[in-house]
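Researcher: I'm comparing several assemblies side by side, and this is the next one on my list. It has 349 residues spread over two chains. Same procedure as the others: predict the full complex and return the structure.
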Amino acid sequence: MDNPTNLNMRTQTFGRDRVLPVTVMASFIALSSSLRLVKHVFVGPLQFVNFPAVFSILGGLMLGPAAGFLIGSMSFLVSDLFIGFAGPWTIVTSLSMGLVGALSPLARKVNNDDSLLGLGILSYLLLLIYDVLSSVLLLIPTLPLHLAFFSAIVGLFLPSSIVFYPVGLVTEIVTVLLIVLIYPKVKTTWRRVRL
Amino acid sequence: MSGKKIWFLALFLLAWAVIATIATSYYYMQYTKYNDLYQDISKKLGEVSISINLAIDYGNTTRVWYNETVLQIGATLYNATVKVAKIETHPLYPGYVTTIDGVKENLSEEVYWLWWYWEETERKWTFGPVGFNEYTLHDKQTLIWYYSNGATPP
C-alpha cells in the first residue's frame, strides 16, 4: 500500500507533467503572436522573419506533433486577430503552420545526432513547405494548380516590381537562423525544467 | 560518411533543388507570359490579315515554299511575291513578271514566269487568270510561280 507522502508526490508529478506542456504551449503561442504583432507595429507588413514558425518548430520538437500543430495554428490565428488582418487566408496560413508544427518532431527523428546544421536544413525544409503550400492554396482560387505552384515559387524567391527583395528566401533564412540560435538554449532550459 | 558530411551534402542538394526549381518556375512563367502575348497578337493579327502558301519553282527542280506568309487583307499576289523574292516586271506591263531572284524569262526557249493557284474544290493547279498585281489573295490560299512554257501545270 502506498504511503500518503508517495501518493502526494505522484499526484504532484502527474499534475506538473500535464501542466508544464500546456504552459509552454501557451507561452509559445503568446510569444509568437506578440512578437509578430511587435514586428508589425515597427515595420508594418514588411516580411523578413516568421515568428510563428520559430515557436511552432521549437514547440513541436519539445512537445510533439499535437503541440506543434496547436502552436502553429493558434499563433497565426491569434496574431491575425490582433493585427486586424484576419480573413479567409487566416485559415490557410494557420492550418499550414499547424502542419509545420506537427511535422517538426520528424526533424528530431531524422537528425539523430542533434546537429545544428541538420536542424537548420530540416527547419528550412519545413518553412519551404509552409511557404509553398500556403501560397499555392491562396492562389488556387484564381489560377490552375501548375500555374499557382510556379507563381508561388517566383513570388517567393525572386524580387519583383511589388517586392524588391526575395521575400520568401529572406524570411526562411532569417527564421532558420533564429531557430538554430535559440534551440540550444531552449533545449537545455527544457531539460532543466523537466527534471 | 560522417554525420556532418551528410548534412553538408544535404545542404548542397537542397540549395541545388531550390535554385533549379526557381529557375524552372521563372522560365515557365516567362514562357506562359510570352505565349499568351503571342496568342493574343496572333488572334488580333488574324482579324486584319491573311496567311497564304506561296512557292517559287525555278524550273531546275528547285522549288522553294514560303508557307504561312502573312499579308494584310486585300493584298495582291504582287504584295506576296515582293515579300519573298526580288522581282522585275515588264516596263510596259506591270502585271507581267520577267525576272524572279535573278532568273530571267527566256523568250527564245519559250520559258516564262507564270503563276498558278491551287483550286481546292477541283484539287488541281489553275492558271492565273489576270496579272499578278490585280489578283487579290484570300486566306489559306496556295499559289506558285512556275518557270516554264505553261503547257503543263506545276
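Model: For your comparison table: The CA atoms of residues 81 and 87 of chain A lie 9 Å apart.
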